[in-house]
Amino acid sequence: MNLMEKLRILADSAKYDVSCASSGSGRKNTPGGIGNAYMAGICHSWADDGRCISLLKVLFSNACVYDCAYCINRVTNNIPRATFTPEELAELTIQFYRRNYIEGLFLSSAVLKSPDYTMELLIKTLKLLRVNYRFNGYIHVKVIPGADPVLIDQAGLYADRVSVNIELPTRKSLQMLAPHKQHEHIITPMSYIHQRILEFNEDKRKIRHTPVFAPAGQSTQMIIGATPESDAQILRLAEYLYRNFGLKRVYYSAYVPVNQHPNLPAIYTEPPLLREHRIYQADWLLRYYGFQASELVDEFHQNLDLDVDPKCGWALRNLHLFPVEINKAPYEMLLRVPGIGVKSALKIVKARQLGSISYDDLKRFRVVLKRAQYFITCKGKYYGNVPFKSESIRNSLVETEDTVLYEQLRMF
């Protein structure tokens, strides 16, 4: 099998990992043209500073020894199989980089023979890139659950970001659909990586030339909709991971039925994309807006409202806290107003030091008034165009949300 055929197979096998976002481009090179936006395995992700970066996203191998019911690469599936050698993948990465196709590498793998054996091959690939080719581009590598901590240490020294996919939200679901995997083999490496990051950061403060360990931190991925867990269970788990393991990001992947199995959705079931979208919105509130999972979902509301975004859902359930006066509300409360983001809230607080804010000023502060108008007053005046009642406001928000959501989902 030639190298390009391996690339085609292993790039296709990696597409279900959503830790990177696909470019969605189908523009090929033309005779006499320059560049190519349509090479197998190339996807786009975003740096912390907002830059869009292109990555080679592939599996090292899809020849898995595990039989996870939800996975296209399970050992019992009759699909084309391929495995790179470390030398092939390192050379391929460098050649793509030299042609300006990519700026980095996103590398994962099925379990080839054993977790340790697979990790050794991934580390050999990373070492070739970093040492032999002196490649300083971005590298994100997936740690194989169950691998020896010594191997995880090496991965963290060569990669910018490391991650362990938790995949299914509960131990029960993991046992039911992935009998070869153990919950401890996922959680333990997460804890170990977090501790090593803290240790290296502490050493760096004392010894200037201490090498960095996973400087871009760690992340994970959960599959949404393959098993019956509620949004409450998913968000509580995400909150736990952020709080205890310092994760940079939890990614959520709407389950795409690829295998027939009695404990999985039927093969033609539509992926729950809207649910995935709402969970991402709720996750954003956990990370940047000071919300707790117990506020967004509780025993009476186990799942997020699909008709309105999670902040609107919380506000409608807590209408006694509104409307808030824009000229007096503290920063923390401004963040909880639907339609007001972090930057807008900071602008409002700063502008109030110079004088009263008018309703028209809010437009300049990029406040989304289609939502915010129902939950604020400005100089004592309420600008909502419906009665201040939960049902009336919700109906207006749903009409607005249909348009906004279409625009958001269209990007994907």
Features:
3-stranded mixed beta sheet, alpha/beta, 412 residues, TIM Barrel, globular
Give a structural overview.
By secondary structure, the chain is an alpha/beta fold. It has 2 domains: 3-24 and 38-293, Alpha-Beta Barrel (TIM Barrel); 310-400, no CATH class. 42% of the residues lie in helices and 11% in strands. The chain contains 15 helices and 10 strands. The strands form 2 sheets. It has a 7-stranded mixed β-sheet. Helix 4 (149-158) packs across helix 6. It is globular, with a radius of gyration of 24 Å. It comes from Thermoclostridium stercorarium subsp. leptospartum DSM 9219. Keywords: Iron, Iron-sulfur, Metal-binding, S-adenosyl-L-methionine.
Topology:
Elements: H1 3-13, E1 42-46, E2 52-59, H2 86-98, E3 104-108, H3 115-132, E4 138-142, H4 149-158, E5 161-163, H5 171-177, H6 183-206, E6 218-224, H7 231-245, E7 249-254, H8 273-288, H9 293-296, H10 310-317, E8 324-325, H11 331-334, H12 342-352, H13 359-364, H14 369-372, E9 376-378, E10 381-382, H15 390-410
Parallel strand pairs: 2-3, 3-4, 4-5, 5-6, 6-7, 8-9
Antiparallel strand pairs: 1-2, 9-10
GO molecular function: catalytic activity; iron-sulfur cluster binding; metal ion binding
InterPro entries: Aldolase_TIM (IPR013785), DNA_rSAM_put (IPR023874), Endo/Exo/Phosphatase_dom_1 (IPR051675), rSAM (IPR007197), rSAM_sf (IPR058240), RuvA_2-like (IPR010994)
Keywords: Iron, Iron-sulfur, Metal-binding, S-adenosyl-L-methionine
